[in-house]
Amino acid sequence: MRVRVDDLAAPHRESTLASEFTLIDRIKSRATRRDDVVLGIGDDAALLRVPAGELLVASVDTLVAGRHFPDDTAPADLGWKALAVNLSDLAAMGATPAWCTLALTLPSADADWLDAFLDGFLELAALHDIAIVGGDTTSGPLAITVGIHGFVPEGQALRRSGARVGDDVWVTGTLGDAAGGLKQLQARGLQSAKLRHRLDRPTPRVAAGLALRGLARAAIDVSDGLAADLGHVLAASGVGAELELGRLPTSVPLAEQFAEERERWPLQLGGGDDYELCFVASAANALAIEQALAASDTYATVVGRIVEGSGLSLRTPEGEAYCLATAGFDHFAGHA
Ligand code: ADP
Ligand code: MG
């Protein structure tokens, strides 16, 4: 079921305006393949084989120009990110990714743009053995919709609803980098390439999600900010949580660029686009979790614990209550 990497080479580049079908042919000629794809791109729909005893896990996410990525984002980064945000959803379910569909709405049939987009998209697809099995190509303002499919053995998915009082709250990696990169971009001042890279090329925590099967009780990916996303877990589980701000995992570039912790907290709690996993687990599993994550090249930090009640309470290192001014991103906020 390995992706055939020899299919990944870019075709000869010529600057052309192509037809819809030339674009689809280009995608088809470069698309990664898998043995469990009985019928891929080219018919009315794909035929796919789900392993016996496993559930199909399906999700879809859209990136809209001007809304989900800065206008100056390179097409290859856009390709990477469009797939990464979807892989992140499967990671948060503890699923093994397998197939994706790609619906492109493009202002013009620009073959060069498509080739560059596919460079980033297929680079990440190859890392996770994902086959493109279909899609749609239309004209209009730039928007990219990726559907993703994977598997999880019955009963092993990481849902939002399993958190229990007394459990630890963990996050993988570091928080706030993508939001820091975006803030610098909006301020139009000096920009850290490392923070911008986290915004443009998030790492979906697929291996961590798999490692957490059977160890975590609930999980979610951090796409809208830790406060909002953990809030979904708390609501689904009927519990509350206390977070210690002094424990929020912080990267070296973020600490360098935003030296004050009070400047960082809103980025780390309210900024989206980190695509780390937030998960909840029994304290008895802490050592097993650290070992399982280390074996999958990820680390994670305990940032708080689950308590009775509802909602999130935040404590500064001095033990004071802290109030976050901004909630996570809501596309329809203010459009009532
Ligand atoms: P239909 O009219 O039946 O929807 P299309 O002409 O849209 O068919 O697509 C023809 C084939 O090409 C289908 O198999 C479809 O899944 C695939 N396809 C179309 N656009 C894309 C795309 N952007 N990426 C991958 N496959 C695509
Ligand atoms: Mg179609």
Q: What key phrases describe this protein's structure?
A:
single chain; 336 residues; alpha+beta; seven-stranded mixed sheet; four-stranded mixed sheet; 10 helices; 33% helix; 24% strand; binds adenosine-5'-diphosphate; binds magnesium ion
Structure overview:
This protein is an alpha+beta fold. Helices cover 33% and strands 24% of the residues. The chain has ten helices and 13 strands. The chain has helices at residues 20-30, 75-93, 111-127, 177-187, 193-200, 206-211, 226-237, 252-257, 261-270, 286-295; strands at residues 37-39, 47-48, 54-64, 96-106, 131-139, 143-153, 168-172, 218-221, 240-244, 277-281, 300-307, 311-315, 321-322. A seven-stranded mixed sheet has the order 8-10-7-11-9-12-13, sandwiched between helices. A hairpin with a 7-residue loop joins β1 (37-39) and β2. α1 (20-30) packs parallel to α3 (111-127) and α4 (177-187) packs across α9. The radius of gyration is 20 Å and the shape is globular. The termini are far apart. It binds adenosine-5'-diphosphate and magnesium ion (MG). Adenosine-5'-diphosphate binds at residues 24, 27, 41-44, 102, 104, 132, 134-137. Residues 24, 27, 41-44, 102, 104, 132, 134-137 line the site of adenosine-5'-diphosphate.
